[in-house]
Design a protein that fits this description.
Distance between the termini: 23 Å
Shape: globular
Oligomer: single chain
CATH architecture: 3-Layer(aba) Sandwich
Order of helices and strands: EEEHEHEHHEHEHHEHEEEEEH
Largest sheet: 10 strands, mixed
Number of domains: 1
Mean pLDDT: 90
CATH superfamily: Vaccinia Virus protein VP39
Low-confidence stretches: 1-7, 142-146, 152-158
Strand content: 25-35%
CATH class: Alpha Beta
Length: about 260
């Protein structure tokens, strides 16, 4: 990720223009609010490179993970789902950038709460079995953690009770049978995620993400299939850095040049 303000019209004060996938797309982000980075790129890298269906990016923020999917998968379509007005504004700005036009033509943005149920969810544009894949980077801090005073950061990072159950319930409703789910979360959330998967999604494959080889995991990325009865499997972990900095695989994943599950 890097910032390249010279390539685009000036951005309003309080926002930045950040380039991803070596400049293949740009994101308008709040300077002081939630900002996307490696987590979103790893989440997008969880989808197969040949994915050509319609995915829903649940809690999309400014659209980082969804646009990264479009950048990696030239036949894919994405629906960005966001409820926060400030992040919706960033996503609209992002999709309106002239540099993003080739990707934006395959993207839709809807204003909706991921936790909606039944007719309200369908009316918002999240139709039952209407998607081939769902991806999510839910808020990951426990409410008891020290909270940031910034409301955008708090909304993006503080987990509500029952969040994984609500979000994965929505994913199970909107993904067709045999479709996929990908998510990234903290390791301490794994139990809650697996409980929410239940019999909705199976065949889960999990990659633990370590900052370096001698440090404990700080994230996991999970991919599963709706209705699958295959067993859970841990695949080789991802180590991000060595003493010299980001490892080549980390850079490839961050820049949209590799698939996390090697497909």
């Amino acid at each position: 990720m890097h910032t390249d303000p010279a390539a685009h019209p000036p951005i309003d004060a309080g926002f930045s223009l950040d380039a991803f996938h070596r400049g293949r797309f740009h994101l308008v982000q709040p300077v002081g609010g939630h900002r996307s980075g490696l987590d979103a790129m790893l989440l997008a890298a969880a989808l197969p490179t040949d994915f050509s269906g319609h995915a829903a990016d649940l809690g999309a923020g400014a659209g980082a993970a969804g646009l990264a999917v479009l950048s990696r998968c030239p036949q894919a379509r994405i629906t960005l789902v966001e409820r926060d007005p400030a992040m919706l504004d960033c996503a609209r700005r992002t999709l309106s950038l002239s540099h993003n036009r080739p990707l934006a033509e395959r993207a839709t943005l809807i204003d909706a709460d991921v936790a909606l149920t039944g007719p309200a969810r369908s009316a918002a544009g999240l139709t039952d079995a209407g998607f081939d894949f769902a991806l999510m980077n839910p808020p990951f801090n426990d409410g008891a953690d020290r909270a940031t005073p910034d409301p955008l950061r708090r909304s993006a990072h503080v987990m509500e009770d029952g969040l994984f159950e609500a979000w994965i319930r929505t994913a199970a409703a909107i993904v067709r049978p045999g479709g996929g789910l990908a998510l990234i979360a903290r390791p301490e959330s794994l139990g809650g995620v697996l409980a929410a998967l239940g019999r909705r999604f199976g065949g889960a494959r999990i990659v633990l993400v370590h900052p370096s080889a001698d440090q404990k995991a700080i994230r996991f990325v999970l991919r599963a299939s709706k209705g699958s009865r295959a067993r859970l499997a841990f695949v080789p972990a991802l180590v991000l850095n060595d003493a010299a900095g980001p490892l080549p695989r980390t850079q490839a994943l961050s820049n949209g040049a590799a698939a996390l599950f090697d497909d």
